[in-house]
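Protein modeling request. Please complete all fields; requests missing the sequence field cannot be processed.
Requester role: graduate student
Desired output: 3D structure, token encoding
Chains: 1
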Amino acid sequence: MLPGVRPRWEVRVVRRAVLRLLLASVTGGIAGLVLYSLTRVTSRSLFAVTGALAAVVALLASEWYRKAARLTEVKVTIPQLSELTFAVNNDSRQVAWHMFVETVTRVSTQPLADDEGVVREALTSMYGLFATTRETLKVSRPSPVVPSGQTVEYLAITMLNRELRPFLSKWHPRLREFEMAHPDDSESTWPDNAACRAELQRVQQHIHGYAAGFARLAGVREADALIGQVPGPRDEADDLRRDAGRTARP
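Delivered output (250 residues):
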């Protein structure tokens, strides 16, 4: 390279900087002229200009609202409910995303190994999901009613009434009774421990389908990787034998 000659890339950078400076100067000059013109118009003209600007803002706002409220048809397959057609908008997608996060971050979809965790914690987590789902639906705006589509509220309430409510109403009182009668005993000595864990895993399998449905409604990509492995079926007879062996240990 000859002395005193700038590299080509430096020349391009300088040219771009000069062009941006000129463009900014021209834009600023035009904006200044517009503002100056507005300050010199009569009151009648000023009202006309203000009305025109307000109309433009209203048009842009209505267009944004129309896009936000636009319904999109989404087909979701839930093993317990077969294939359903949902009508979703931005609000319902937000509710579906919230429900997806709640379901996949709790014991409701994460396996509970035989030697890990306790049933009490699992029941508490499931009850937390129940309460959070109700609160989410209470504070959310109801989805538009359409003749041919279900709503995200329908999916969430069905999960509560068909999966969580029966499981909690059955096992929470039983475990509570055992805890009160045997405050110093390990949970592994609870006679219903194996049966409760087996049913918990069946509920987890079902809720996994609901979580996948919420992900579909929310537009989550690669939802299966986020949800994790589906708990496999448990053999209740093996669980009973295992618990009997634990109880018989000195």
